[in-house]
Amino acid sequence: MEQRYNDHWPEYLMEAGGLCLFMVSACVFTTMLEHPGSPIRQRLGSAFLRRMIIGVGMGLTAIGLIYSPWGKQSGAHLNPSVTITFFRLGKLARADALFYVLAQFAGATAGVLASSFLLNRWISHPAVNYAVTVPGAAGTAIAFGAELLISFLLMTVILFVSNSNTLPAFTGFIAGILVATYITLESPLSGMSMNPARTLGSAALSHTWKAWWIYFTAPPIGMLAAGELYLRLRGGRGILCAKLHHQNDKRCIFHCGFRERSAPAQEANAASRPELSRVE
């Protein structure tokens, strides 16, 4: 029996907590690798190498959150653009989508706020600046196009992998690899956000709102475009669930196709072993 959305507050809190932890990780890695007073920064003169280390750290953080007990239950969207896309694809109820987005914005802001207490004056240094996302030297047009492209690619990969017959369990690993790759290669163009909540969390504390509109428009447009492409290629029945990891024993609050897929198999198994269905 489906739970009503007012029983879904644990999932909302898990989304908030997950993005809070993600932002703490982002602030810690950025401070360690970019603050001039950091011993690691002093030893690593290569900006590319520093970005790669940050990317690996954030990719592992994303993987850890997706496969954590919280991520397995909430679905580990951790991004309003992901939630909006799954809502468009018919996998979330309207109320769940709304509260997921609100929780994600609250969690991201809380994460940067917690980091400001943890890292004190280090995080406010211009070289760190609360891990803010701003366009690079190539300008706003390039930053917008880059955010659009990486968001489109990430959501496309998530949809094709999570709905495949053999690879769904690896969706989180592949998403984490993409996050690491984007931070390493793309971040000089846009700061690598893909996430309006992530951008807001840093901007609210740093008071840096440079070209903020890019991060509130390009990621959702890119991910929604990926969803539309998938619908045209596979159809709505090819989208099973809004979870990034579903092969677990946690409850699912979404319009879940995995239940529909598993039901015939369970019925067939019961029919082939009638003794299991007898009432003693």
Note down, in words, how this protein is organized.
This protein is mainly alpha-helical and 280 residues long. It is 66% helix and 0% strand. It contains twelve helices and no strands. The protein has helices spanning 9-34, 39-43, 47-66, 69-74, 80-88, 94-119, 140-162, 171-185, 187-190, 196-206, 212-234, 257-272. Helix 5 runs antiparallel to helix 6 (94-119), helix 6 (94-119) runs parallel beside helix 10 and helix 7 packs antiparallel against helix 8. The longest helix has 26 residues, at 9-34. The radius of gyration is 20 Å and the shape is globular.
Which characteristics define this entry?
mainly alpha; Glycerol uptake facilitator protein; 12 helices; 66% helix; 0% strand; disordered C terminus
Summarize the structure.
This protein has 280 residues and is mainly alpha-helical. The protein is 66% helix and 0% strand. The protein has twelve helices and no strands.
